[in-house]
């Protein structure tokens, strides 16, 4: 049975892209207010870091349930419920007067923040198949990639205009706006006839099946390893930017702007090539670009190992800075080519449980991200140490290489057969993005 859809592809891309953005917004928007919050609560920066850790732990735990709940009760209902909980949790954060209270509300934010990203992937595969699904996934990725760039700027503007409490009031308004957009613009894409009853035993059995499927796990790990080549740098920014680039906390855009540009250009290229270039070939191109980026990065840091922080400046800009950040931007470009192909292949392994498959993929990725941020990044990029750039470059290249090895095994075995067109109803052909 096909869902009754009356939304254009362009509108769907923007709605799902905005839904995916509110997770990163809930982390990055209040970064500029860390100092003011620490002062009000009378705590140090390490204690404030708990507001991120608590959020991520809750996010990872809840990611196992969002997709399965949407398989049972419908995509739209779960997204609306998650946005409601997130808005209420943001109100609680805004009204918090102690760090302990804030941490409790931040945990509730984390429990609800994943609905947009995780359920949104299932929505795409409900509606579209083949190259159309790849184009939509790329379009959503392109919109989503804007969030890490603009969220800190929005937070800084709000902090200059008001106080840190207003940052969370902004998140309340953002959640309400997304709720209205979902309610009025997003149809239900998972009809009752296709739903699977939600039972904890069934859920655990499904996850045991998915996590016991070597092909599924290897493919999910391949995507996560590929992304961690970039996430390692993001996690190490407080050390990498001043220690290697010689910049201060007001010049982070020299790192983030080209990185996000690479991600957006890669997503754009993926969407444009969908239907013209075979998905397997496009993914291989993405891996190749990541490999070239890793080689350039290692070579640059070997040659410039005695020049960190970069000493040569003109008008306040380091002349070697483009060579230091270009490999990271190329890595982001390659990731954006690979990601849609990997994700759609994972969802197609379980066409009747796409929400659960999306949850399992997110859970694997979040666990690896937590390991990178909490263990690997502090070891590879300590606050004080030598050869910082080379350690980061070789570790990132290692992530890309491991991901490629996992992908190579999957590609040799053959990609899953595409879901039949009857199982994925096309949207109105109102033009491409």
Give a structural overview.
This protein is an all-alpha fold and 433 residues long. The chain folds into two domains: 1-190, MFS general substrate transporter like domains (Growth Hormone, Chain: A, Up-down Bundle), CATH 1.20.1250; 208-415, MFS general substrate transporter like domains (Growth Hormone, Chain: A), CATH 1.20.1250.20. It contains 17 helices and two strands. The chain has helices at 9-28, 34-41, 45-73, 75-94, 99-113, 115-127, 130-144, 147-161, 164-185, 200-211, 214-235, 237-243, 253-273, 279-303, 321-349, 354-380, 388-413, and strands at 313-314, 317-318. Strands 1-2 form a two-stranded antiparallel ribbon. Strand 1 (313-314) and strand 2 (317-318) form a beta hairpin. Helix 1 runs antiparallel to helix 9, helix 3 (45-73) runs parallel beside helix 6 and helix 6 packs across helix 16 (354-380). The longest helix is centred in the first third of the chain and has 29 residues, at 45-73. The chain is globular. It starts with 8 loop residues before the first helix and ends in a 20-residue tail after the last helix. The relative contact order is 0.16.
């Amino acid at each position: 049975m096909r869902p009754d859809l009356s939304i254009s592809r362009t509108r769907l891309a923007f709605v799902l892209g905005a839904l995916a953005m509110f997770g990163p917004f809930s982390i990055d928007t209040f970064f500029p207010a860390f100092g003011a919050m620490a002062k009000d609560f009378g705590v140090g920066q390490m204690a404030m870091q708990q507001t991120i850790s608590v959020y991520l732990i809750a996010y990872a735990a809840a990611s196992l349930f969002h997709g399965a709940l949407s398989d049972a009760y419908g995509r739209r209902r779960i997204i609306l419920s998650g946005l409601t909980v997130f808005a209420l949790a943001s109100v609680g954060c805004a009204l918090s007067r102690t760090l302990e209270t804030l941490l409790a509300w931040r945990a509730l934010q984390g429990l609800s923040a994943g609905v947009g990203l995780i359920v949104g992937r299932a929505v795409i595969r409900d509606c579209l198949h083949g190259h159309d699904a790849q184009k939509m996934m790329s379009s959503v990725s392109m919109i989503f990639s804007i969030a890490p760039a603009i969220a800190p700027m929005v937070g800084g503007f709000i902090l200059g205009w008001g106080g840190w409490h207003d940052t969370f009031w902004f998140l309340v308004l953002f959640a309400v706006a997304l709720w209205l957009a979902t309610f009025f613009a997003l149809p239900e894409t998972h009809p009752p006839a296709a739903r699977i009853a939600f039972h904890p035993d069934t859920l655990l059995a499904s996850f045991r099946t998915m996590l016991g499927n070597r092909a599924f796990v290897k493919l999910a790990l391949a995507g996560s390893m590929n992304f961690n080549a970039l996430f390692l740098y993001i996690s190490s920014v407080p050390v990498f930017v001043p220690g290697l680039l010689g910049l201060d906390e007001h010049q982070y855009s020299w790192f983030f702007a080209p990185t996000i540009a690479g991600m957006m250009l890669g997503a754009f290229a993926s969407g444009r090539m969908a239907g013209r270039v075979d998905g397997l070939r496009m993914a291989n191109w993405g891996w190749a670009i990541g490999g070239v980026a890793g080689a350039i990065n290692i070579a640059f840091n070997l040659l410039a190992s005695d020049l960190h922080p970069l000493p040569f400046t003109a008008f306040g800009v380091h002349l070697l800075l483009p060579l230091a950040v270009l490999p990271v931007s190329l890595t982001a470009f390659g990731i954006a080519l690979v990601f849609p192909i990997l994700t759609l292949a994972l969802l197609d392994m379980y066409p009747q449980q796409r929400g659960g498959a999306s949850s399992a993929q997110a859970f694997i990725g979040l666990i690896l991200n937590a390991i990178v941020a909490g263990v690997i990044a502090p070891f590879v990029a300590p606050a004080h140490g030598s050869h910082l750039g080379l350690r980061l470059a070789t570790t990132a290249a290692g992530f890309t290489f491991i991901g490629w090895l996992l992908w190579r095994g999957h590609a040799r075995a053959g990609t899953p057969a595409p879901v039949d067109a009857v199982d994925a109803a096309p949207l109105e052909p109102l033009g491409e993005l």
